[in-house]
Write a structure and sequence with these properties.
By secondary structure, the protein is of the alpha/beta class. The protein has eight helices and nine strands.
Length: about 250
Amino acid sequence: MSDDLLLRARDVSYGLGGRQILDRVSFELGPSQITTIIGPNGAGKSTLANIVTGLISNFEGEIERRPGLRIGFLPQKVYVNTLMPLTVERLLRLTRKPGDSEIDHALAQTEVGYLKHRQVRSLSEGELKRVLLARTTLGNPDLIVLDEPTSGVDVTGEIRMYELIGELRSQLQCAVLLVSHDLHLVMSQTDQVLCLNQHLCCSGLPESVSRHPEYLALFGQKAADSIAIYTHHHDHVHDVSGEPAGHRHD
């Protein structure tokens, strides 16, 4: 594999219970590149993310990773036992041993430093997603894999989350593999789109994918038009609660 690639997938296929979930999917991930996987429900998006991270290993085909590749991962669903006392700081130390300054920096990057000593069970969905996003940045990853990072978050939180992902890519100089159903929201941050429906329907720049016949067959002209016309301009930043920054009430 060439030095300008982090990962290459060749003819990746996966089936479960007699059902074909992925069929000969091939793509490449480059450094500092944001790649977004889109597709309908049941298209195999989360399965592909789990294969990339190594959580699923019994697939056909090949995943070639750069030696020593460091991956941060935010799964689509995280279950927290509400009976278990667990602070945000402790959550960030469960699988590695970051120093206080590294934890503070990670939480500050996703604008939730004030949650460091809060119980995880008390967090809103938006707060938890930002904490988990911060967790993916620990250890200076080369690649961050995010599976529907805005699920359960309102539209204002979605927009800011996608902006944060773009900012993290620039700050960490890492690549991002993002599973999302909101191409119209992520297109300004995305370098490459993989349109998936068990097989790879099409791939390329967001604008070109949105005009591809297979994309239109899956999502319709209305979705393509929303990509073409979508803009979002504001002169302020909303915090994780959805209020303008500086107006959060404790």
